[in-house]
Specification:
single chain, alpha+beta, Thrombin, subunit H, Pdz3 Domain, 6-stranded antiparallel beta barrel, globular
Length: 432
C-alpha cells in the first residue's frame, strides 16, 4: 500500500508550522481585549504630583529651622472629555503643589484641580488642551460576575500597562487607607492593580469604563478594587459643578444592626440599619419613616450596614426615589425615599439641634457662640469662645464649609472636630 497520501499530509503540516507568524491574519490576533486597549489606552494618562515637604533637622530639631524637600507621587488618570477634563484618585494629588499630566504621546501638561473629595477618593483636573483622546465613564449597574475586565494604568511608573482578569465581586466593603471612611460598593477584580494604577480605568469588553481603580489590600495578591462608574459619575458631576461633593439630605440618623444590638433591642432582624432619629420636615419624615424602624433592604438588596443606604442614594441623581423595605415591629412596609440637596443653613441647624452648638465668624475664623447646657457639646467640655479649626479631617474657614461637614457626619454617625483654645488644639469625636 502506498504511503503517498500520508507523506503529502505531513508535508503540508510542516509548511503550515514553518509559516512565519507575521503571515497570520491580523484579525486572528486582534482579540476583543486588543481592540478595547487600542480604543481606550490613548485616554489613559500618567499623573505626577509634586509636593513640598518640610522636615525637622534630625540633629538640631527646629531651633535652626526646618528643611524642605520635593516629594513626588505617581498615579494614573483618565481623560473623560476632549476639552481637557481628567479624573484621578484624590490621594494621588493630595497636598500637591504642582501636577503634571503625561499623555501617551509623551506630552506633559500642567493641571489645575477643579475639585477633589477625600471621602470618595476622586479628583477632577483640567489641562489646557483641546481635541484630546477621551473616554467617558460608562455604567456599572448591569455588570456580570465573572465577565472579563481590563485595567490600564501606570503601575510603578510603567506607562500604559495593561492587565486583565474578571470581575470578582460587587458591593465590597473596604476601609479607606486612613480608616476614617468605609466604602461599601467597591468592585473587586483579580486584574493586577499595583501602586501607580490608582486613578486608571477598569474597562469591560465593550470598551466601557465600569470603574476607577483605587485600592489594593496590602500584602494580598490578586485582589484589587475600583470605584463603580455610576458612583464616580455622580461625584465627578458635583466636582465639576460645585468644586466639591455635595452632601445629600434624607433626615435619617442610622445605626448598623448586628446580632448583639438586635438581641438587646428586640429587633425583628439581626442585620440592617436602625433608624435612631428622623428630622422633622425632612425627606425621610415625608416618606413616612420613623425612629425605631429597621431598614432591611434597599433597592431589593439586603442591608448589612448603614453605609449601604448611603451608597444606594449616592449612585442616583438627587431627587431620585429608592425603595426601602422596613420592619416596624413584626410588620413589614415598603417606602420610597428620595434624597435632596440640603437647603442652605441646614448643616448649622443640625449642629445646633444635635450637638447644642451655635457658631459665628470673626476675623476670618469660626468660633463657638453658644454651647447649650447638658448638650453633647457641653459634656465634651466645649465652651463659648473656642475656635473651630477643622471638621472631618478638613480645614474649615467659613460657615458653609462647616455646615457641609456636619451633614457628611450624619452618614458616619459622628462629627470629628479640631477645636482651638488658647495655644492648644483638641481633637474631639462627637456623636451626631
Amino acid at each position: 500500500m502506498s504511503n503517498r497520501p500520508l507523506t503529502v499530509a505531513l508535508a503540508l503540516l510542516a509548511i503550515a508550522v514553518a509559516r512565519p507568524l507575521a503571515a497570520q491574519p491580523d484579525a486572528v490576533r486582534r482579540t476583543p481585549i486588543v481592540q478595547v486597549v487600542e480604543r481606550v489606552a490613548p485616554s489613559v494618562v500618567n499623573i505626577a504630583a509634586e509636593a513640598i515637604v518640610r522636615e525637622v533637622d534630625p540633629f538640631f530639631g527646629s531651633f535652626f529651622g526646618s528643611r524642605t524637600r520635593k516629594a513626588q507621587s505617581l498615579g494614573s488618570g483618565l481623560i473623560v472629555d476632549a476639552t481637557g477634563i481628567v479624573i484621578t484618585n484624590a490621594h494621588v494629588i493630595e497636598g500637591a503643589s504642582r501636577i503634571l499630566v503625561i499623555l501617551k504621546d509623551g506630552r506633559e501638561l500642567e493641571a489645575d484641580v477643579l475639585g477633589s473629595d477625600h471621602d470618595a477618593d476622586l479628583a477632577v483636573l483640567k489641562v489646557k488642551a483641546r481635541g484630546l483622546p477621551a473616554t467617558p465613564l460608562g455604567r456599572s449597574a448591569d455588570l456580570m460576575m465573572g465577565e472579563t475586565v481590563i485595567a490600564i494604568g501606570n503601575p510603578f511608573g510603567l506607562s500604559n500597562t495593561v492587565t486583565t482578569g474578571v470581575l470578582s465581586a460587587r458591593g465590597r466593603t473596604v476601609p479607606s487607607e486612613s480608616g476614617e471612611a468605609r466604602f461599601t460598593d467597591f468592585l473587586q477584580t483579580d486584574a493586577s492593580i499595583n501602586p501607580g494604577n490608582s486613578g486608571g480605568p477598569l474597562v469591560n469588553l465593550a470598551g466601557q469604563v465600569i470603574g476607577v481603580n483605587t485600592a489594593i489590600i496590602s500584602g494580598a495578591s490578586g485582589i484589587g478594587f475600583a470605584i463603580p462608574a455610576d458612583r464616580a459619575q455622580r461625584v465627578v458631576d458635583d466636582l465639576l459643578r460645585f468644586g466639591q461633593l455635595q452632601p445629600l439630605w434624607t433626615g435619617l440618623r442610622l445605626e448598623t444592626v448586628d446580632p448583639e444590638l438586635a438581641r438587646r433591642e428586640g429587633l425583628a432582624a439581626t442585620r440592617g440599619a436602625l433608624v435612631l432619629k428622623v428630622f422633622e420636615g425632612s425627606p425621610a419624615a415625608k416618606a413616612g419613616l420613623a425612629a425605631g424602624d429597621l431598614l432591611v433592604s434597599v433597592q431589593g438588596k439586603p442591608i448589612v450596614a448603614r453605609e449601604d443606604v448611603t451608597t444606594a442614594l449616592s449612585t442616583v441623581a438627587p431627587g431620585t426615589p429608592i425603595a426601602l423595605d422596613v420592619k416596624r415591629g413584626e410588620v413589614g412596609f415598603r417606602y420610597s425615599l428620595a434624597a435632596v440637596r440640603p437647603p442652605k443653613g441646614l448643616g448649622l441647624e443640625v449642629l445646633r439641634s444635635a450637638l447644642g452648638l451655635e457658631v459665628a465668624t470673626e476675623e476670618g475664623g469660626i468660633y463657638l457662640d453658644t454651647v447649650a447646657r447638658r448638650s453633647v457639646a457641653a459634656r465634651a467640655g466645649l465652651e463659648p469662645g473656642d475656635r473651630v479649626i477643622g471638621a472631618n479631617g478638613q480645614r474649615v474657614t467659613d460657615l458653609d464649609q462647616l455646615g457641609n461637614e456636619v451633614l457628611r457626619a450624619l452618614d458616619r454617625g459622628s462629627l470629628f472636630l479640631v477645636v482651638g483654645r488658647g495655644r492648644y488644639a483638641y481633637n474631639l469625636n462627637l456623636p451626631i
